[in-house]
Amino acid sequence: MADDPFKYFRIEAKELADQLQKGVLELEQGGGARAVQRLLRAAHTLKGAARVVKQREIADTAHALEDTLGPYRDGDAAVSAEAIAALLGYVDTIAKLAATLASPVPAPVVKHDHAPAQATRTAEPSPSDAFRTVRADVAEMDALLDSVAEAHVQLSAVRESFTDIERAHGLSELLCDQVAARQREQRALPSAGQPGTSLLAVYSVAEELRSVLGRVERQLSLAIDQAERELLQVRSAAQGMRLLPVSVLFAACERAARDAAHALGKQVRVETEGGNVRLEADALLVLQSALIQLTRNAVAHGIELPEERQRAGKPVHGTIRFEIKRRGERVACICRDDGRGIDLDAVRGAAVRRGLIAATASPSTSELIDILLDGGITTTKRVTEVSGRGVGLDVVREAAQRLSGSVSMGTTQRQGTWTELVVPMALASFAALRVQAGDTIAAIPMDAIERTLRIDAREIAHASTGQQIIVEGHALPFMPLAAALGLHSTPSAPAASWSSVIIKAADTRVAIGADRLLDTTHAVLKPLGAYAPASPCIAGALLDARGAPELVLEPEGLVAAVLRGTGRAASDQRKRHAVLVIDDSLTTRMLEQSILESAGYDVEVAASGEEGLEKALQDNRYALFLCDVEMPGIDGFEFVARTQHDPRLRDTPAILVTSRNAPEDRARGVKVGARGYIVKSEFDQVALLGLIQSLLR
After folding, report:
1. Closest to 326 (Cα-Cα) out of 463, 147, 448
2. What's the whole-model pTM score?
3. Is residue 402 located within the same domain as residue 541?
4. Which residue has the higher pLDDT, 110 or 534?
């Protein structure tokens, strides 16, 4: 193939054009002098690179962009709407010029002496060139990854054979030692002279053998280690080239929102989250058209005009938010807006006019949304550049079908609309934390991990809903990873400590106990297939550096497994215990209530001993009293004494919580019948829950 003079410039030009577009949109939102400086640097870099490859038109356009930004360099004046429009026009021109740069194609093979004229033709760029210029072909990357995995397997075999060389080196040293000892023995004999010639020759050969084997051992060891490092780098690079972050789509969505809003006289801001999730470039190409269409739909049908938003008590700027989330074996792309919501009456009217439903029908909201997703329905009364043809959602639905995914939608009147496009995770990669439980190594997606911490076994409380730990004042369900995965291992002594991973899924947090936290990795999920069914806790597998499979855990499945385990403990108990907290301090009451409710107890509070006693006498359902000592009126000692003298309450245990730590105070607490005495200066949430659990068994 002929040399491509624009091979690297195309990539750089696209990246710089994306930076320029993002910078201009930021500037339009009031980015200030810093945004101007960033734009000027990008434009200057592009101008210089274009001149190197003799692309004068691109260089001149970049120069014109610099000239337009010149008056705003110091940030003293707001950038005018005319300047913004001109800047975006320059960016569009640069992007188009860069996209039209021809790449050479192979000349056809001919048998004539002279090549035909078409041998010098150039390839026309396709819409996917923007993605394909930043990565190699996916099939080639897969083949490369397979080859790297196979090379690791072969390298492992060489490393195992290396032990034979080590053993031979050891034998050579032993031989040298034995020959040397024989020489010393001969010298020690009174009748012996110098060792014989044969013995000296053997010793010489043994020394040379030891030297050669030692050198081979060192060199081979270094070569194997170097080869392993190189293979790891190749594998990492190949995975990175195979996939691209979803964030590359956000600039196009921001531009689409801006252009649609200007066309309709609206004001819109775009927020993004989760752009670090990586997908194959072909999938991104399909998703781009769908997300841009969702952006236009949100602006046209959802976001209200500024004056309408003001009347509704909303900010003048509407907000469109893109969220990219990993869900098991799938990736969800969610587009939300804070607009007026779908006009369901208009959808129903359009469906009646098209004969999709009867005029007397009363379809539900979900049925109307299904009709809307089927396509061909528009609620816009006139055709504009942005909407009105009823084909917008066809693009989204077709994108889902092409990627073997699904699309769903929901709306809340006067609050907004969300649309969710879900595609298979097999097309994606993600960051993960590798953990070890017994002999099993597994990976947990990083986006589901809130934090990790080391906990002592004594910090695990056996509460009414099973094992729990206290994290930042909240009790979280705890379960060893091996138990959550249902791994059967030989019984052993309880672990003295755990590496705990706090996982959040579906707004629920749990703690998983692992034996070790190993490292982080960038994983490409491999589905297990229909013939290898797994538990709901397992999303699939990844291949480690040597090509061996490791489990990838499903956060939602893990959370469900932990909750099922704690649910069994709760169901064995058959009911939630009710606790009455009595304290005249609002802060203390709320703290104790939060701790107990997080641990699964029903909690009521009283602000005085009198109120607590009244509640206890009226409702004999409390399983335990948690009472302060120092309160005006009826103090804690008197409260406990009165409950112990009442036949209905004497079997209800009471715990006193106080700042008084004198021996006589503790003795008085025991005398009146308190079953526990906790000093506030020594307050320990785990100890409190453990004491309550022991009293309620």
Report:
1. 448
2. 0.47
3. no
4. 534
